[in-house]
Amino acid sequence: MCPEIMTKVFLWTLLLVLTGIFLNYYTDTPVPKEIPEKWKVRIIDASMRTYSHIINLLVKLGITTHFSFLDRKLSDWFLLTQMTGYPWGLSLTADPYLRINDTVLDYVRVKVYEPLSTIRFDRRPALVYIHGGGWSLLSVDSYDPLMRKLARDSGVVIFSVDYRLSPQYPYPEPLNDCLTVVNYVISHARELHIDPARIAVGGDSAGGNMAASVSLRIKHKISLQLLLVPALQSLNFNTTSFIENTKYFSQSINNPQSVVFMTNYIGISPKYVQEFLINNHTSPALKSSHFAHNTDQRRWLPSKYVRSLHLRSNIGLKIDYGNEDLSRIIESTLIDPYFAPLMADDDMLRDLPETYIVTCAYDIIRDDGIMFSERLKAVGTPYTLVHYHDGFHHALMFPHGPLKLDVAERILKDLVRKLRKL
Ligand SMILES: *[C@@H]1O[C@H](CO)[C@@H](O)[C@H](O)[C@H]1NC(C)=O
Ligand SMILES: *[C@@H]1O[C@H](CO)[C@@H](O)[C@H](O)[C@H]1NC(C)=O
Ligand SMILES: *[C@@H]1O[C@H](CO)[C@@H](O)[C@H](O)[C@H]1NC(C)=O
């Protein structure tokens, strides 16, 4: 696009963002006291709410629908503006330390980041990165600033996967796209000048879910998996992290309605969201099955992660209710370990690649990553769990830019240190 149009788009977006912040700011979101950069976090929260108000309005006016092309562009622009100050992010800026290619591997579009520092090497380490956004939003474009930083700082070649999104493409399509790219990189390692013994897969949120599935599928060919604030199960939405954290950022990143991302990925109507939220989507039989044991918080959630004393002593679930009809339709998906990696049995978890898990205290899906690490510990698979007491779900998007957060800098620095050893 020509710079003139970009400038217009930018000014309009800026105007919308500023108006949004103005309208939202007075509601003064509660920010947990462990998070020091209160005003920055409030702006992040306010702009996310602004985005959802705008998209909800556009949907009401009949101009677009949720998870349309326009919705996805809007969410990209909002996130990029928060991360870099510009809705187009860094796309107009060449990076002096990287060669960046948009390419197609097999049939999947991929953005490749090659650090110039290692560009002449014949056996370079590689990371296949799967972006977040609930399988439904965001893209390789909104992740571009983060991928640049990760590639630049770590010296690792990054393949950022532009997988197809739900609800248009439900499970397993997005996962298949990611698998295709990982398999391509493995089988073409020589031409790509990649060391086949140093290939990592990673992702955040929904991307962390698919990174874990890829690792379960082709464990021996991966040497490290990075699961950043991953979503790993959908049997239980009454986890302590859900209960504790919906009081913060409840209209943005911790909005309980984001369970719609799960219904999108499963491929069922969003009308079931309310049933998911009270765990009505699983039958009594499923609630007492061994699959439910895999998400049993009395077994898999060390109480040191739970802030509320009341919840610490009371994390049992009711198991004598549930919508049998709904459960019957979705059960085979809910218990599929490639859909929900916490459903993997001990044997599947036993010889997984080394696993690096990041969790954030103020995240409604915090417990998924913690429970997964406890399960790995139980079977003796090497793992590292790094828990950030002052983090929230998408804090890692802000290691730079106008809303730079200290916790994001630490998450990225720790991640880079891990990748340098790849
Ligand atoms: C990136 O593009 C360059 C040419 O601009 C090409 O030589 C190189 O092979 C490409 N790399 C990948 C991984 O596609
Ligand atoms: C949800 O969790 C709370 C606290 O752990 C518990 O008291 C409550 O019974 C649970 N609700 C259901 C429906 O399982
Ligand atoms: C939960 O399931 C029961 C049994 O199918 C049903 O009668 C009830 O309406 C459901 N609750 C909600 C909130 O949908």
Features:
43% helix; 8 strands; binds 2-acetamido-2-deoxy-beta-D-glucopyranose; alpha/beta; globular; 18 helices
Instruction: Examine the coordinates and then state which fold CATH places here, giving the name of the CATH topology.
Output: Rossmann fold
Name the hetero compounds present: 2-acetamido-2-deoxy-beta-D-glucopyranose
What general outline do the C-alpha atoms trace?
globular
Order of adjacent strands in the largest pleated sheet: 1-2-4-3-5-6-7-8
CATH class: Alpha Beta
Q: What does the main sheet amount to?
A: 8 strands, mixed
Transmembrane segments: 9-26
GO molecular function: carboxylic ester hydrolase activity
Active site: 205, 363, 393
Protein name: Alpha/beta hydrolase fold-3 domain-containing protein
Structure, explained:
The chain is an alpha/beta fold and 422 residues long. It has one domain: Alpha/Beta hydrolase fold, catalytic domain (Rossmann fold). 43% of the residues lie in helices and 15% in strands. The chain has an 8-stranded mixed beta sheet, with helices on both faces. Helix 1 crosses helix 2, helix 2 packs antiparallel against helix 3 and helix 5 crosses helix 7. The longest helix has 23 residues. The radius of gyration is 21 Å and the shape is globular. Bound molecules: 2-acetamido-2-deoxy-beta-D-glucopyranose (NAG) (3 copies). One 2-acetamido-2-deoxy-beta-D-glucopyranose binds next to loops.
